[in-house]
Amino acid sequence: MNLGRDNHPELREPVSALCSEFGSAYWQEIDEKRAYPEKFVEALTKAGWMSALIPEQYGGSGLSLTEATVIMEELSRSGGNAGSCHGQMYNMNTLLRNGSEAQKKRYLPRIASGELRMQAMGVTEPTAGTDTTKIKTSAVRKGDRYVINGQKVWTSRLQHSELMILLARTTPLTEVARKADGMSVFLVETKSKGLEAKPIRNMVNHETNQLFIDNLEVPAENLIGEEGKGFRYILDGLNAERILIAAECIGDGYWFIERSTNYAGERVVFDRPIGQNQGIQFPIAEAYMEIEAANLMRYKAASFYDQKKSCGAEANMAKHLAAKASWEAANVCLQTHGGFGFAAEYDVERKFRESRLYLVAPISTNLILSYLAEHVLGLPRSF
Ligand SMILES: Cc1cc2nc3c(=O)[nH]c(=O)nc-3n(C[C@H](O)[C@H](O)[C@H](O)COP(=O)(O)OP(=O)(O)OC[C@H]3O[C@@H](n4cnc5c(N)ncnc54)[C@H](O)[C@@H]3O)c2cc1C
User: Fold this and answer.
1) Chain centroid, CA 49 distance in Å
2) Series of mean pLDDT values for 10-residue runs along the chain (383 residues)
3) Which of 62, 117, 202, 326 could form a disulfide with 253 if both were Cys (CB 3.0 to 4.6 A apart)?
4) End-to-end Cα separation, the chain, in angstroms
5) DSSP of 271-303
6) Which among 53, 73, 55, 57 has a CA at the least distance from the CA of 2?
7) Which of 230, 132, 241, 243 is nearest to 187 (CA)?
């Protein structure tokens, strides 16, 4: 089956061929050991897929966000876990759109060659939660450096990344005119003194951590863009993140549909394939429709992003619709497989767990709904 794969064969075919070298057994073992898929990420990097968004003059292939989403979709639909490596794709735009020429020259060629990974982003904090403007991590300028103190949570891929995008307050909340002002973004080398990571064991095999920041010194030249404007840069980057995640969910969704359809066609109970029963067919057909519809919004959002049009609403809608559709497809897939859906060797239970994450992270459902209610529909702000 080739559902939803009618564009970009020049990307889909080679990415899918690479992914086929990392089959079920590989992902099952990685999941069971709660290990990081080092070989997979290494292979993607060597083949140049992890530097897709880096402009050619810095050693990358200069692809658009739309094309990057196709790569991420293929990773998911191959049965792998794109969450192990999507960070570099969405962090990239923060650096590309707001970083200085010196920062780009210093880091991008080394990221493109695979010498450095920029897979981690530290935004969420334990007490602020989704209310990002309340972050407590502070950065104080001292001569040619910033000294950073604070705490982050859910900082993913940190232990498999040399670079992290870090958000900190450079002006206290009480001293800014607007609460979104006064935050800044830094490019941090993760092996620096003053950083301590404590892994969080979680439902998915997702390398993620509590991060304690104690007098971390970051050279002032690693401030991205202007001091105090970091929240805007992060928001722009988050739009890219949402669109990329939407594509991953679409990839998961097609994977669930294909697995459901294949199994429903093969499994014989009461002397006929279970897929002959409309009680099995209809939920699969419905889940497929939802994936197709969400996919349209994913391409719309990606195209707006590439044209540098405002795309907050589209990015949020794409992520939400795709995450919901993929979760529905996951449920249908599990139900279609009956008891075997719970057996690790079928991969369904693993993908089921993986797909659930995206209704919560990188932004949870309620926050998307409230964004649309307020910013698109003009309803009163609720918080
Ligand atoms: C596996 C994993 C990986 C992650 N990776 C990263 C990462 O790499 N970097 C990073 O910075 N963060 C990361 N996160 C954090 C993630 O972005 C947050 O968990 C997510 O945005 C939700 O924030 P929270 O957990 O603080 O929930 P909270 O803000 O505590 O909210 C809890 C619940 O209440 C709801 N809620 C809160 N306020 C309102 C309101 N006013 N109205 C209605 N509902 C509301 C939320 O929607 C949510 O459902 C990761 C999380 C997970 C689980």
Assistant:
1) 15
2) 93 98 98 97 97 97 97 98 94 94 98 97 97 97 98 98 98 97 98 98 97 98 98 92 97 98 98 98 98 98 96 98 98 98 98 98 96 97 90
3) 326
4) 46
5) TEEGGGSHHHHHHHHHHHHHHHHHHHHHHHHHH
6) 73
7) 230
Best mutation site among 152, 201, 211, 360 for ligand 1 pocket (most ligand atoms within 8 Å of CB): 360
Residues with CB under 6 A from ligand 1: 121-124, 129-130, 154-156, 202, 206, 208, 357, 360-364, 366-367, 370, 383
Alpha-carbon distance of 246 to 324, in angstroms, equals: 10
Tokens of 76: 């998911």
Closest residue to atom 14 of ligand 1, CA basis: 154
Buried b (16+ CB within 10 A) or exposed e, 65-86: bbbbbbbbbbbbbbbbbbbbbb
The type of residue at 228 is G
Sign of the CA dihedral running 255, 259, 265, 270: negative
Nearest CA among 271, 264, 224 for reference residue 103 = 224
Identify which of 85, 89, 124 to mutate to test ligand 1's pocket (most ligand atoms within 8 A of the CB). 124
Per-residue pLDDT tens digits for 252-270: 999 999 999 999 999 999 9
